[in-house]
Amino acid sequence: MTRRIVLALLALTVVLVAAAAVPLGLSITQREHLAFRDKAQAATRVIAASAEEYLSDRAPADEMNADLAAAAKAGDCAAVYDMNGRLVASTPCQAAQAPELAAETLTGREPEPPETDGRLLAAEPVGTFRQPDGAVVLARSAAPLNARIAVTWAWTGLVAVAGIAASALVSVRLARWVNRPLTTLDTAAHKLGEGRLGERAVVDSGPPEVRRLAATFNTMAARTENLIHGHQAVIADVSHQLRTPLAALRLRLDLLATAAPESAPELLASAQEEVARLSRLVDGLLAVARAEQTVPRPVPVRVDEVVADRITAWEPVAQERGIHLTSNSRAAGPVALGKGDLEQVLDNLLANALDAVPDGGTVTIDSTSVAGAVRVRVMDDGPGMTPEARAVAFHRFGNPKARGSGLGLAIVHRLITANGGTIALEETPGGGLTVVLDLPWWHDRRTP
Predict the structure, then answer these.
(1) CA gap 101, 110 in Å, rounded
(2) Type and span of the H or E element at 370
(3) What residue spans of 294-377 are helical by DSSP H?
């Protein structure tokens, strides 16, 4: 990947430099040529002006000779022709003696200055173009022009090479900056795929997008690790929890096979109790798995209506056990919960409370509005739980002294937290256990 990035950036740089440097060099070269010709033409006009006084006005040739001497001193060659094309005067060098160019100028045309033997020839009529009295031809060496053009192209090429070299350096550093964290991320993903669940990617180098990708990978890896460890813990817990009722069931069946006929009904009843216990345990595990795999889609739920409905459903069970089941709901606004989640939560809490409270006890459900939430409390005056038991009550099989499967509070905790709420266990004043649920308001979920 580093090589591809470097080559791509270098190719782009070469194209951009060529697109900028070549037109610039050509433009400077053209401008130098024009400036050189304009200066040669200006020098020719100076000599033509003094020659006009000599040829047209019959003035002395001193000024014309002086201009020719100045041209020779500057390195130019010049020659003056009369209207018949005869050579009148010239510099010591003979490079400017071009009768053909002078004859063309005498016809009234302005010829394009040619370049011969490394010299640029410029021609200018003496007097007017239509009726010239003579012609001046000047030859100027193009060596200085060629030297300046060569220097211009050399600097242009040097700047282009420097730009390409700088681009190569920046491209290498950029490619490494991008590629190094991606390489470490690829290595981490490979190790994670091999089973090294603790492997994580580096998130403190590279572009922000790569850092976010590495952070997302680390989050995924952490969740994968927790999920696998959680499944391993579930398997261990299930194996441990199933071992006891299975052993008891096997013992009772063995006794039933060898027992006397009169004790067979009692042993059969005990075996049926163990089967029922196993059934409850399996149902609880299925409920936990279902709750952990569910992603709730919040809907508006009326707490007072659900509480009243569950009180009606559990009232016969409470009356059968001699327990007073009451409610006091003062929160009418809807909360945001998955469909049926609050019913399942209250069913689990009421089942636990009715199992824990002795005959004549009381179970109360109340709800009040608090800041941004509706607080629902399920209170009983049973034996309660120790602080140590409350600390692990939401874990699977967290309470070894539970009469049921020990999974009810784990299901409740999962359902509440998955919906964005909170759950806590407190001691009821006077004794007992209070389960406190804070459920988010529905309008809070809908606010952008």
Answers:
(1) 10
(2) strand 362-370
(3) 303-320, 341-356
441 DSSP assignment = B
Q: What is the domain partition of the chain in residue ranges?
A: 2-147, 208-291, 296-446
| CA contacts within 13 A on the Cβ side of 302 | 5
- Burial class for 111, CB neighbours closer than 10 Å (0-12, 13-18, 19+): middle
Q: Which two tokens stand for residue 334?
A: 């809807």
Q: What distance, in Å, lies between the first and last C-alpha atoms of the chain?
A: 41
Q: Is 380 exposed, middle or buried (0-12, 13-18, 19+ CB in 10 A)?
A: buried
Angle, helices 208-258/143-193, rounded to nearest 10 degrees: 10
Give the CATH class of 2-147: alpha beta
Q: Read off the tokens for 220.
A: 């995924």
> How big, in percent rounded to 5, are the helix, strand and coil portions of the chain?
60, 20, 25
Q: Which residues of 192-246 form beta strands (DSSP E)?
A: none
Residue 204 CB partners (closer than 8 Å, separation 6+): 211
CATH architecture of 208-291: Orthogonal Bundle (1.10)
CA trace torsion 259, 260, 264, 265 (10° rounding):
-150
The two structure tokens encoding residue 400: 């070894």
Question: Under CATH, what is the fold of the domain 296-446?
Answer: Heat Shock Protein 90 (3.30.565)
Residue that the structure tokens 């192209």 belong to: 153
- Map tokens 């539970």 to a residue: 402
Q: What's the order of all strands across the beta sheet hosting 324-329?
A: 324-329, 362-370, 373-380, 433-440, 422-427
Q: Which pLDDT tens digits describe the chain residue by residue (448 residues)?
A: 667 777 787 788 888 888 888 888 889 888 988 898 889 889 988 998 898 888 887 888 889 889 989 998 988 889 999 888 888 888 888 766 778 888 888 887 777 667 666 788 888 898 877 778 898 999 888 888 888 889 988 988 888 888 888 888 888 887 777 777 888 888 888 888 887 878 888 777 777 888 888 888 888 888 777 777 666 666 655 655 566 566 666 776 776 667 666 666 776 776 666 676 666 666 656 655 555 555 567 889 999 889 999 899 999 999 988 999 998 877 667 888 888 888 988 988 998 899 889 888 999 999 998 887 899 999 999 888 888 888 888 776 555 555 544 567 887 888 888 888 899 999 998 889 999 999 988 864 444 3
DSSP string, 10-54: HHHHHHHHHHHHHHHHHHHHHHHHHHHHHHHHHHHHHHHHHHHHH
Chain center to CA of 217: 13
Q: Check if the beta carbon of residue 372 is closer than 8 Å to that of residue 213.
A: no
Residues in CB range of 11: below 8 A, 6 or more apart: none
